[in-house]
Amino acid sequence: INKTYEVEYFNLKKDGTFEYQFTLNPFIQLNEIMGNVAEPSTQHFLLYDVYSHLTYADVDEHDINDPYHQESIINIKQGDTLTYDKHFIFLDSLMVNANTNPESQKALDVMLIAKIKMQNMLGEFSYADAIYAVKNNIAQSFPAFLEDGDLKYKFIFSEVNAEAGSIKIKAYEHIDNEKPFIIMKAIIFPYINLLWIGAILMAVGTLISVIQLFKKVKS
Which of 56, 73, 84, 166 could make an SS bond with 183 (beta carbons 3.0 to 4.6 A apart)? Predict the structure, then answer.
């Protein structure tokens, strides 16, 4: 399976406008067993060639039903301040709501609420609650969603570390947070046709030598 990219090249004119030149189509061969292989694309001109090669591309398929990806693990204690994707993350408090009725026939029900605060580089805050609940010995997490303008994040309260006195939160970025991009290396090979002409002349010379040798042997 190949994943092909269409890359258009433009020339910057003196008046500041761009003039279309050509299009290259480098691609990546997707191979789960042997690993992905980047294949180049080349534009040929009379006196030089333009060679392009992909050095980075996001080839992972994202679940359209869950637009949050790029999982990060955050281990945080109450009162801690951590950095995440150019934001400061605070755990303001951790609230516990438990059923402590000893006469209850049900298993102990516990709900932990992590009060999360996020601050951007402008000093603006947003707030949300990430919930970790245990009911009938079954744990379940209810994610918190935070937004900063066009940036969207999801935080899942996934684990409690009683010994360290901390909790583990899984943080995800929305797929729209990062615009798709590739990193490509483009190389210009000058006078590449001289190399091909030399190779052709060598091949022709070798062929003539073989023919002459064959004639001498035959005669």
Answer: 56
